[in-house]
Amino acid sequence: MKKASSMDETIAVPSHIAIIMDGNGRWAKRKIMPRVMGHKKGLEVLENTVKDCIDLGVKNLTVFAFSTENWKRPKIEVDFLMNLFLRSLEYKIQQLHKNNIRFRFIGKTDRFSDEIVAKIRKGEDLTKNNTLFTITVAADYGGRWDIVNAVNHLIQNGYQEITENDIQSHLALHDLPEPELYIRTGGEIRISNFLLWQMAYTEFYFTDTLWPDFNKEQLILALESFQNRERRFGRTSEQLPIHERRE
Ligand code: IPE
Ligand code: IPE
Ligand code: MG
Q: Residue-wise over 3-12: b if at least 16 C-beta within 10 A, else e?
């Protein structure tokens, strides 16, 4: 697989990247267009980002498409986003399937239309054995909801005392490695209730670039930054194998 020349090919790329695709509204506003045009362009950028991740050797991408808090937005914007989600489930899943890409969804489903929920399940089922790459879409997702949901499952299963592993194995992303890299576009330096449990040791990368302007060069910059991080997980630098030290 062809790797970008500016990256250090001797250092592993993250196997799982999580992205908050933020800045769509501001991008549109700057172009004197309705906010929703930013979401439309943002979807195209997501498609390109999937290709770029595959090209660069990343195996899993989890993107925040709609938070549990985003229902508070004006109805016209929420309706547009739901429609965009439905259309992309209709037209893009086949394309993912053809390319051996697995589609996954995480989040609550009770506030989506039956049509959307049916298409999510159909898409997950169709692509479940695909092995090249996994794209997970987080919609009506919240990190706090995810943890509470896991604990409720444990209670329903009669657990009296729980371990970290018990919670982990009941989270929505239980079957994927934790993201090694978290990217947020749009200039905000916050998590906004994304993958709270899973990001305990994730490397964070923030960029002012608005999501509709994100591209492969930007992704490579994030990967280069990741490759320069010394991931100590509580240990000292000297305890790390030589190839993991950065100083
Ligand atoms: C992110 O872009 C997409 C969603 C939250 C659905 P925004 O819509 O938050 O864009 P800004 O932050 O207002 O520019
Ligand atoms: C986070 O973006 C959620 C998504 C990108 C889907 P927001 O734009 O909703 O986050 P805040 O409100 O600025 O924290
Ligand atoms: Mg935003």
A: ebeebeeeee
